[in-house]
Design a protein that fits this description.
Mean pLDDT: 86
Low-confidence stretches: 1-9, 153-165
Structural class: alpha/beta
Helix content: 40-55%
Strand content: 15-25%
Shape: globular
Number of helices: 8
Radius of gyration: 15 Å
Order of helices and strands: HEHEHEHHEHHEH
Largest sheet: 5 strands, parallel
Distance between the termini: 20 Å
Number of domains: 1
CATH class: Alpha Beta
């Protein structure tokens, strides 16, 4: 996990983390790669996506998941309709009403992702979803190339809560 804790200049940290995410997307071209971008604010995620698109040499397609989404694999497969974009940014996970079931079903379908999708996925998650991934889908979480954090204070809280649990 890329940590930004301990640095006093948050603008530099955000820029560095965003450049790192852009580089991870570029390096993963032509192959499936799961990248986790952790940010607790949906508004902040939008700002970061704009910044990411500035830094990325690769076109990033975006998908916003509706709250009624039940499966990630089927939803993405239908959205793409057989197309293979350069990369895909997936947002809206925090609004899904049955997020635990979605995480479990995604974990069960994890072997299908690299078979069907030869491009990097950026999943925008928050601390709650990160915790759920760790507990409900450790195999899927371990597939993630990296978790890039954009909320340093929240990271400290998550790590403390995981140590207590």
């Amino acid at each position: 996990m890329i940590s930004l804790v301990g640095s006093s200049d948050s603008t530099v940290n955000i820029t560095t983390a965003t450049k790192h995410l852009a580089r991870a997307i570029a390096i993963s071209q032509g192959q499936f790669s799961l990248l986790l971008a952790c940010c607790n604010s949906a508004n902040r995620q939008q700002e970061l996506m704009s910044l990411l698109m500035e830094f990325s040499p690769v076109k990033i397609n975006e998908v916003w998941l509706p709250p009624s989404t039940e499966t990630l694999y089927t939803t993405i497969h239908k959205f793409l309709g057989g197309n293979q974009p350069s990369s895909l940014s997936i947002r809206g996970l925090e609004s899904i009403t049955t997020i635990n079931q979605l995480i479990i079903s995604t974990n069960l379908m994890r072997d299908e992702f690299p078979k069907q999708f030869q491009f990097p996925f950026v999943l925008w998650i928050n601390d709650d979803i990160l915790r759920n991934l760790i507990w409900l889908a450790p195999d899927l979480k371990n597939w993630a190339a990296t978790t890039i954090r954009f909320d340093t204070y929240s990271q400290q809280l998550v790590e403390e809560q995981l140590l207590i649990a």
